[in-house]
Write the structure tokens for this entry.
Amino acid sequence: MPNLYHNKTIAVFGVSQDPSKYGYKIFHTLVQKGFQVYGINPKGGQVDGKALYPALAEVPGSVNVAIMVIPPAALLGAVQQCKAKGVAEIWFQPGAQEDSAFVLAMAAGIKAVNACFMAENGLW
């Protein structure tokens, strides 16, 4: 059964090269399932042979959906990056939720969701 997000471009903020971290697990699973996904990590690097981008602005083309797997203190900056890039939807994963970032996203006209993208979309 195709997922509603298969035809969308997804950016995952907080992709780690550590397989025990959720940023890695989410990115890896989306890559394995054939999604068009980009990883964001200020340090760069690679996961699953895909380059990680230091900032959303460096991702080529448009991004429809962002998944936040970063510390709450980093969320406002990440939402600003999404606003600048024209992202339509942001998922704030459990542990990566903060009220002012959620409000900023909504005020920018971005659909904001405080829930696990993977669980809510039947990917885990």
Observations:
- Strands lie at 9-13, 36-40, 46-47, 50-53, 65-68, 89-92, 111-114.
- The CA atoms of residues 45 and 52 lie 5 Å apart.
